[in-house]
Write a structure and sequence with these properties.
The protein has eight helices and 32 strands. With 355 residues, the protein is α/β, with parallel strands linked by helices. Strands 1, 4, 5, 6, 8, 9, 10, 11 and 12 form a nine-stranded mixed beta sheet that branches. It is elongated.
Length: 355
């Protein structure tokens, strides 16, 4: 089997964080979401992976390279515009050939990986397998309606009146028949070739499409609140370790990871949390569900339930920062008048003086 990762979206729902950064490269628990997807596919025994890229392709190429760090081979497939998931499959046919493949959206995080799913599909005679999960607001997703036997009856993309609460997770498995499907369908009202329409075509034309209902957690990291929730979930499941320096005046609990080169000075770190490489935490408090990325300084400040990207500085903030995503190369300093707490989503290279 081969792997196909879709990483061509602009990530407008994550602006300003993704204004000049690929959304798939925003880190969750200090690892870019795209890297987690590559690892999940590799762990499933697949080492030939295509990545569909768009406007942020240059940044993704630079970050991922040829895939050597994961022991995989990466092929990049440029998509001229975001014309739909089925369009991404269509333009990937030369790479995929006649092999079975798994398609994984590059901004999704799922509990438990996909190794079991890949084994199940590889040993089956199914033409496709789609992963579903129950969601609270199915109108925002592709939705599946199952019949009494648990087979797919219909698939609808972002329906106004959802027939069920089973959403397509963003993990799909196909054989070569999907290319007939994507060439048979027409663009939707959004002007895109919808993967739901392609799968529906397979169902209506007698191909075996197997639904799998995922019972663990799954998060589409398309919005800041979702990114924070994904960070929470992954931090809670990490095997934590200490590789950096902690001085005798600091308190760091067992649910904290301190990465190589990081320094904790006269500070309290309560997990689950992760402190990135060459980051300094001085006279500060870092609370649960916080990820501080590499080469960052937190000094005389308090922060929890937040994500801070690399090369940022948060200095002299007496009130706690919480529920925030702070971009790269951001500086936050203190001004005299102080409210109790601040909530922020800051893009790269921001400068904020708090009043």
């Amino acid at each position: 089997m081969k792997g196909l990762i879709l990483s061509g979206g602009k990530g407008t729902r994550l602006y300003p964080i993704t204004f000049n950064r690929a959304k798939q490269l925003v880190p969750v628990a200090n690892k870019p979401v795209l890297f987690r997807v590559i690892e999940a596919i590799k762990e499933a025994g697949i080492d030939d992976i295509g990545i569909v890229i768009g406007d942020t392709g240059a940044e993704i190429r630079e970050a991922v390279g040829h895939g050597r760090r994961w022991g995989v081979n990466i092929t990049y497939i440029p998509q001229e515009a975001p014309l739909g998931l089925a369009h991404a499959v269509k333009i990937s046919q030369d790479f995929l050939g006649d092999e079975r493949f798994v398609m994984f959206l590059g901004d999704n995080v799922i509990q438990g990986g996909i190794s079991g799913l890949i084994r199940q599909f590889a040993s089956s005679t199914w033409n496709s397998q789609v992963v579903l999960t129950e969601v609270d607001q199915p109108q925002h997703y592709g939705v599946a309606e199952l019949d009494e036997q648990g087979k797919i009856k219909q698939l609808i993309e972002k329906p106004r009146n959802p027939p069920s609460n089973l959403a397509l997770v963003g993990i799909y498995m196909f054989d070569h028949n999907v290319f007939t499907a994507v060439n048979a369908i027409k663009p939707s009202w959004r002007g895109e070739l919808e993967i739901t329409d392609a799968i529906q075509w397979l169902v209506e034309n007698g191909f075996a499409v197997h639904p799998y209902v995922h019972r663990g957690w799954w998060i589409d990291t398309g919005k800041p609140i979702d990114m924070l929730e994904a960070n929470n979930r992954v931090l809670a499941e990490l095997e934590h370790k200490i590789e950096g320096y902690i001085d005798r005046d600091s308190k760091v609990d067992h649910l904290v990871t301190i990465e190589r080169g990081a320094e904790i000075i006269n500070s309290v770190i309560r997990g689950p949390a992760i402190i990135g490489e060459d980051t300094r935490i001085v006279n500060s408090y870092v609370g649960p569900f916080t990820s501080i990325f590499h080469h960052t300084v937190i000094e005389d400040s308090e922060i929890e339930h937040s994500i801070v990207l690399d090369h940022s500085r948060i200095v002299g903030i007496p009130s706690r920062i919480e529920d925030s995503i702070i971009g790269r190369d951001v500086e936050i300093s203190y001004s005299p008048i102080k409210p109790k707490a601040y909530k922020m989503t800051l893009g790269d290279h921001s400068r904020v003086g708090l009043l």
